[in-house]
Amino acid sequence: MKLNAHFCALALLFAESGHAQSPNTSPPAPLLDTKIRATQAKAMNEARNIAMAIRKYANEHNGVFPHTLESLFTSGTLSQGTSTTVENPLLKQLKSWMYDSSLTDAGSGRSIMLASRSGFKTNEASVRLVVYADGSTAFISESEFELQKGPSLK
């Protein structure tokens, strides 16, 4: 009987300490942060692959970027198994990339060529994944994205 009372007291202390989780609560913050970082890393890798394919396409077409991302498939620059979507951890669904087909290989430099359609939630704020025409990638704030995006980014 005393053992059972001690066990109940320990269980109560454990629950009050915040270490116990009911099945309906969200995952602990470190686990959620790790999941978000993994999704962001996957999206950044995918964005780099698409950017390399766009630049390869431009190399083969006198510096002109493809009119659509689908052109990368029809031209054979990307294989059919390559994804052109990014997973948004907030919505838990796939969204298409925003793409600026008006850019060319020459002189576009720091113009946004490719961007995630919606932001990634971090602990601080929402950030958007962008790929610049020079091939560099970055996560930027929504306000910075609004300042940098070109009118042809759709």
Task: Summarize the helix and strand pattern as letters.
Answer: HHHEEEEEEH
Shape: globular
Instruction: Work out the helicity level.
Output: 25-40%
The percent range for strand residues is 15-25%
Biggest β-sheet, characterized?
6 strands, antiparallel
Radius of gyration: 22 Å
Question: What structural category arises from helix and sheet content?
Answer: alpha+beta
Uncertain runs: 1-26, 88-94
* Total DSSP helices: 4
In brief:
The chain has 154 residues and is of the alpha+beta class.
Structural commentary:
- It is globular, with a radius of gyration of 22 Å.
- It is α+β, with helices and mostly antiparallel strands.
- Mean pLDDT is 73; it is low at 1-26 and 88-94.
- Helices cover 38% and strands 19% of the residues.
- The chain contains four helices and six strands.
Identify the notable features of this structure and list them briefly.
single chain; 154 residues; 19% strand; globular; disordered N terminus
Helices and strands in order, then pairings?
Blueprint lengths: L1 H15 L12 H32 L9 H5 L10 E4 L4 E7 L12 E5 L3 E2 L4 E7 L4 E5 H7 L6
Antiparallel strand pairs: 1-2, 2-3, 3-5, 4-5, 5-6
